[in-house]
Amino acid sequence: MTRIEQLMQRLPEDIDCAWISADVNRRYFTGMASSAGNVICFRDGAYLLIDFRYIEKARACVKDCQVIELENLSVQVENLLQQHHATTIAVESAEMTLQQFSNLQKRFSHQYTWNTSNVLSDAIKECRMVKTPDEIEQIQAAQRIAEAALQNVIDWLHVGVTEREIQRKLDFTMLELGAEAMSFPTIALTGARTSMPHGVPSDAAVQAGDFVLMDFGAMVNGYHSDMTRTVCVGTPTEKMKSVYEVVRQAQAAALQAARAGITGKALDAIARDIITAAGYGKQFGHSLGHGVGMDIHEYPNAAPSSHVSLEPGNVVTIEPGIYLPGEFGVRIEDFVVITETGCRNLTAVTPDLICIPAK
After folding, report:
1. pTM above 0.90?
2. Where are the beta strands (DSSP E) in 273-320?
3. Which of these ranges, 7-16, 98-107, 159-168, 331-340, has the smallest mean pLDDT?
């Protein structure tokens, strides 16, 4: 069964047509990356309407739907709606702006009913939650590129290098090793600035005894990796080692507990309770993790608000952290594939504290 057929099965019977226009979702269902195009799905067929810029590529690589060169969107879609006897059209409420929907609605006659609830976005989310072996293979390939880039940086990292230089070296190495793009803007922080979970790299330079926090990932064939490592250049203080060990233990416990059936809330609590017991509960201000796939943040989440149970094939991050403003921060992030009996860690880099000689 194709991904489009799976999607249409998830929709209520009164939905005759699903209109997909978001770039990532269009790529997920057709296999083609582009900045334009509309996928019009029916229960007995699907079509990609795309303009001249992409038509040759689309005809060569698009799967599971018929490719049509875009000439007049309104006329062509209306013809398809009539051909398939469709009257109710669902749109991506989570992706489409009010202005985009208003403009779309004005193009068509009033005989059609537009479903603007979350029904289509939720169905797409559910389709993408469980990864196939091929998807996991792409994610794993992206992770191996990121890990090689990290090792390259660790071998080079030294006192005096700036956060922006670290960021550039990670990014360049991932691209050189075959990454399609970065998973997200790379985070590289040093010293007291490591207490900012999502700080932006600056010209701050590494000093002897500093933590360096790096959060980054590569993209391969549309699929992302995600990892964070906090290393020390020189010798860490006893407090730095102690805080790092709390985070490491919290992550290890969560990795041990991750399996099908556990809720995101329960998994988050396992790591959070360890950090809270150590006296740093208020310094762990974000959730334990999130899904990863064709978006860097997908469902399901491992968060205090998540009552969704994890399923085999989910790919989620496990990334506890402690952040002490004015001092330092520590985050260790792996990501795993959930299985019936546990999880398979896709991250091969040690979670133990790596200390690089100050030089």
Report:
1. yes
2. 289-291, 298-302, 315-318
3. 98-107
- Token pair for 117: 């609830």
326: burial class by Cβ within 10 Å (0-12, 13-18, 19+)? exposed
Q: What does the alpha-carbon distance between residue 132 and residue 193 come to, in Å, rounded to a whole number?
A: 38
Kindly give the pairing relationship between strand 298-302 and strand 227-233.
unpaired
Mean pLDDT of 37-48: 96
> Tokens 């939720």 identify what position?
122
Residue 66 identity? Q
CA distances from 53 to 38, 56, 72, 212 (A): 14, 8, 15, 44
Upper half-sphere CA count for residue 213 (Cβ side, 13 Å): 28
- The tens digit of pLDDT for each residue in 159-210 reads 999 999 999 999 999 999 999 999 999 999 999 999 999 999 999 999 999 9
| Rounded CA separation 27/299 (Å) | 18
Closest C-alpha among 253, 327, 252 to residue 283: 327
Helix (H) or strand (E) holding 40: strand 38-42
- Beta-carbon neighbour count of residue 349 at 10 Å? 16
What is the Cα–Cα distance from 23 to 228, expressed in whole angstroms?
27
d(CA 320, CA 246): 10
Angle at CA of residue 167, ends 163 and 170, nearest 5°: 140
Where helices occur in the chain by DSSP H, the ranges are 3-10, 23-30, 52-61, 73-83, 98-106, 119-129, 133-156, 163-176, 238-257, 264-277
Beta sheet of 343-345, edge-to-edge order:
298-302, 289-291, 315-318, 334-338, 343-345
